[in-house]
Amino acid sequence: MTDKDALNSQSRQKEKTNKLSLMHLTGITDDHIHYLTPTLGIHQEMLDAWLMMQKSAKEAGITLCIASGYRNAERQLQIWNAKFSGSSPIKNNRGETLDINRLTDKEKILAILHFSALPCASRHHWGTDIDVYAKNHLPEGNSLQLEPWEYSATGYFYELSKWLEKHSKEYGFYFPYDIYRNGIAAEPWHLSYAPLSSKFQQDLKLSALREAIEKLNIKGKKTILSLLPTIYSQFITNVNPENILKE
Questions:
Q1: 60 and 51 in contact (C-beta within 8 Å)?
Q2: Quick check: 172 and 128 in contact, CB under 8 A?
Q3: 35: which strand partners?
Q4: Residues 6+ apart with CB under 8 A from 111
Q5: Rg (CA), the chain
Q6: C-alpha to C-alpha distance for 41 and 59, rounded to whole angstroms
Q7: Over pLDDT 90: what percentage of the chain?
Q8: Which pLDDT score is estimated for 171?
């Protein structure tokens, strides 16, 4: 092989790697995922950290479980289109269901984004972000809601919240939506594995996201694309900056 051939081969490999990385970031492929069950997966490189944290929580009397882990772009698209079309409810910050017939496309998009990520932009695509709860603290006969009140001082999972606030960082996890920042609503159940997710967040560029959205059969696409710079800054990169990599 000549030097020129070697350079061309390296260039092709780099291009292939970059494309694969974008496919990971936007939820198109799942070959970076380790499946704990047939339907529940997390990034393979955070498996050890998760198992160690789960074991530590167990020793503290908490059965730490994942309600939602990896979610592909197709599933996120189903959630989005159902809300945009009105077949699933869109709620405001007070938990009230909105009348979508009274909303413009822009208003619908911004309302959906408070609680549901834009397809190809969800942190759940990365496999680094998980929604957690304490299985042994959920009263018998009650279903998990993933609502802030469950994790508050009077909720089922307050002990879990206190434990995670104290110990999750020891295993590399942090809360990207610890408070409301005029973007995604606060999510006290949502943990992110910072050694990976902080890099993935930097890698997901606006231009790449635009390219991915343009390929989707997503409702409200024209308005989404016109709003994309605002969506990117308000709902995608607007997260807790105090992750463990910045200590």
A1: no
A2: no
A3: 41
A4: 90, 92, 98, 103
A5: 19
A6: 24
A7: 86
A8: 97
Count Cβ atoms within 10 A of the Cβ of residue 235 and give its class: 0-12 exposed, 13-18 middle, 19 or more buried. Answer: buried
Beta bridge mates, 33 = 43
Domains in the chain (CATH in brackets) are: 3-246 (3.30.1380.10)
pLDDT, tens digit, for every residue of 8-62?
A: 444 444 444 455 689 999 999 999 999 999 999 999 999 999 999 999 999 999 9
Average pLDDT estimate for 195-213? 95
